[in-house]
UniProtKB/TrEMBL annotation:
Residue span of motif 'KMSKS' region: 287-291
Official protein name in the record: Cysteine--tRNA ligase
EC code: 6.1.1.16
SMART domains recorded: DALR_2
Signal sequence bounds: none
Enzyme class name: ligase
Cofactor comment: Binds 1 zinc ion per subunit.
Organism listed in the record: Tenacibaculum geojense
Keyword Zinc: yes
Cofactor(s) required, per the database record: Zn(2+)
Gene expressing this chain: cysS
Length: 492
């Protein structure tokens, strides 16, 4: 159903710094581009938070009935160590340190990212293009920018001329930075740099002899600048102008500012209608980051294998924890915060499970239609998931009253409540009901232990104990079956 027709979705646009009514370029369709990971290392939970924010946005747009083309790239070349134009390529450096091919690094961490994304219940994007797969298009875009007179070549490298661009355009339109101030505040170039101005950024870098990731171009054997790939791949798959561009807050400058300058130079139009930026996940009050060692891996949480964690947690709890904060607010990670989220998550899951056992009455003590609208209103207000979750707990309270026979619900309302709760909890927030799975894993572990003890009893010819274990498990509905491969069990 085209729910988008009856829902006035508002999105906070980083470009206008205000919430705007969302109106896609083509009615019923949405084009969304999100900057993906640089695959030189495992993604940490901070990266996962940003990708989860956009997974939730993607899920809500799909729920509203939009046909969404969601492009999330893989950066496998061009991202240098210090986010600027100096230093080694992150992937090439890892390859050098580990004495493997750069493409082995790319493969290993792309697979890791996909595995984590699947475990964390992310919907796959519609297209996942790579920088190295679009070198030809990147060279073409550089040529176009040079033709417009806004890039220059020095010693085989090509730089974007920010000052020339800024004469007729506004470099700083997204980040609010003023280029004139920036020029005042930066040291003059020391004569070593090839750039005319420190604000200029690389479109193409000539590779020195040691640099193994290199491609031929009209200017040199080299590699593209980091910002270029996103301009190229977003316009290739979504057009010169598209609806939503997302990424973490830390990408706003210089990455997204440079993307706008490149794309706008080529097409003459603003490339993106709604710029969305997700806020950072903190650990110990600092941004989670690989470079500082201040991070937790997504797998650590599932195993409990990290000193900041009191125990292991399921994916449902982590998603619930992240969705309890608005995507534009910073979020502090800690073991205690996860424990608190686990309590809330379990209460929500118990209520969802309990709904299936309710017998409807003749009338309702809860206005389900009104509640459902409040849930949509929260999501329509710039994807306000914490408010949505607060509303979900109003339903939990009511379900618990039903359980205690202190309230009733009509049959029609029971269907509406069940369908809506499932849509918000599973389709939109992407929570997974793994609380039950975990307890059945634990039960399986206990039965395996009893099977082992029974075998020991049999080996010792202690038939009484062995029969007792089998019979008492059977009385609990757990049947043991002895076979050639050992003993298996079924639970009724
Ligand atoms: P990278 O692989 O470094 O290009 O980062 C991938 C994505 O993760 C980008 O959108 C970053 O903005 C985002 N990111 C990096 N660190 C954090 C953090 N601590 N919290 C949330 N997002 C982050
Ligand atoms: Zn990007």
């Amino acid at each position: 159903m085209d729910l988008y027709k009856e829902n006035q979705l508002k999105i906070y646009n980083s470009l206008s710094k205000s919430k705007e009514l969302f109106k896609p370029i083509t009615d019923g369709r949405v084009g969304m581009y999100v900057c993906g990971p640089t695959v030189y290392s495992n993604v940490h939970l901070g990266n996962i938070r940003t990708f989860m924010s956009f997974d939730m946005v993607f899920r809500y747009l799909l729920h509203l009935g939009y046909k969404v083309r969601y492009v999330r790239n893989i950066t496998d070349a061009g991202h240098l160590e210090n986010d600027a134009d100096e230093g080694e390529d992150r992937i090439a450096k890892k390859a050098r340190l580990e004495q493997i091919e750069p493409m082995e690094v790319v493969q290993r961490y792309t697979v890791d990212f996909h595995t984590v994304a699947a475990k964390y219940n992310f919907l796959p994007p519609s297209i996942e293009p790579t920088a190295t797969g679009h070198i030809v298009e990147q060279i073409e875009m550089i040529k176009k920018i040079m033709d417009k007179g806004l890039a220059y070549e020095v010693n085989g490298s090509v730089y974007f001329d920010v000052l020339a661009y800024n004469k007729e355009n506004h470099y700083g339109i997204l980040s609010g930075r003023n280029i004139e101030d920036a020029i005042h505040n930066t040291r003059a170039l020391d004569g070593q740099s090839e750039k005319r101005n420190p604000q200029d950024f690389a479109l193409w870098k000539k590779a020195d002899d040691r640099h193994i990731m290199r491609w031929p171009s009209p200017w040199s054997d080299g590699f593209p600048g980091w910002h270029l790939e996103c301009s190229v791949m977003s316009s290739k798959y979504l057009g010169d102008q598209f609806d939503i561009h997302g990424g973490g807050m830390d990408l706003k400058f210089p990455h997204h500012e440079c993307e706008i300058a490149q794309s706008h130079t080529c097409s003459g139009v603003q490339p993106v209608n709604y710029w969305m930026h997700a806020n950072m996940l903190l650990l110990n009050g600092q941004k989670m980051a690989k470079s500082t060692g201040n991070y937790v891996l997504p797998d650590d949480i599932l195993t409990g294998n990290n000193e900041v964690l009191p125990k292991a947690f399921g994916v449902g709890v982590v998603r619930f924890f992240i969705m309890q904060a608005h995507y534009r607010s910073v979020l502090d990670f800690s073991g205690e915060a996860l424990l608190a989220s686990e309590k809330g998550f379990n209460r929500l899951m118990e209520a969802v499970d309990y709904l299936a056992d309710i017998t409807p009455g003749n009338s309702s003590d809860f206005n389900v239609a009104e509640w459902k609208q409040k849930c949509y209103d929260a999501m329509n207000d710039d994807f306000n998931t914490p408010i949505l979750i607060a509303h979900l707990f109003e339903a939990v309270k009511f379900i618990n009253q039903l359980k205690d026979k202190k309230a009733t619900i009509s049959s029609a309302d029971l269907t509406l409540l069940t369908n809506s709760l499932h849509a918000f909890v599973f389709d939109i927030l992407g929570l997974v009901n793994d609380a039950k799975e975990q307890s059945s894993d634990k039960l399986g572990g206990v039965v395996d232990l009893l099977i082992k003890l029974r075998k020991e009893a049999r080996d010792n010819k202690d038939w009484d104990l062995s029969d007792q274990i089998r019979d008492e498990l059977a009385a609990l509905g757990i049947q043991l079956k002895d076979g050639r491969e050992g003993t298996s069990f079924t639970i009724n």
